[in-house]
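Tokens as discussed.
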């Protein structure tokens, strides 16, 4: 018997409902992230003078046949037997999340930065039209 919640719903059913809800949100990812960035900026008086970026990976047990991004790649978890995806996260100086991207599992971290910068600047604009750049700090040298 699976885990149940206080309302008697199966936790696996709740997880499935959450997955379906997230699938419906995915087409609206860009506009949602822009809205949240603007809203957080107003609520917390955020400055976007420095953005922080890091990449991690997560692996799938099983074939992951339904996910074209799941590929064999460098496994931080020493799970060379599993396919994985790489996940990039952009946060503000204060650590508030501003965006994420999912990359193929065989992609090297260093090859994702240019795409992340281009995506963020296309979505949010450049911070200084005179300098035409925004400083970025990655999690690894």
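Sequence:
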């Amino acid at each position: 018997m699976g885990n149940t919640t206080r309302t008697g719903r199966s936790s696996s059913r709740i997880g499935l409902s959450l997955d379906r809800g997230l699938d419906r949100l995915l087409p609206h990812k860009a506009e949602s992230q822009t809205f949240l960035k603007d809203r957080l900026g107003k609520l917390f008086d955020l400055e976007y003078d420095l953005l922080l970026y890091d990449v991690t990976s997560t692996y799938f047990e099983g074939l992951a046949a339904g996910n074209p991004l799941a590929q064999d790649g460098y496994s931080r978890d020493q799970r060379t037997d599993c396919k994985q995806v790489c996940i990039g996260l952009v946060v503000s100086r204060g650590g508030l999340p501003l965006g994420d991207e999912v990359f193929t599992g065989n992609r090297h971290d260093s090859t994702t930065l240019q795409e992340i910068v281009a995506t963020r600047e296309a979505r949010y604009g450049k911070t200084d039209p005179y300098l035409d750049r925004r400083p970025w700090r990655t999690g690894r040298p």
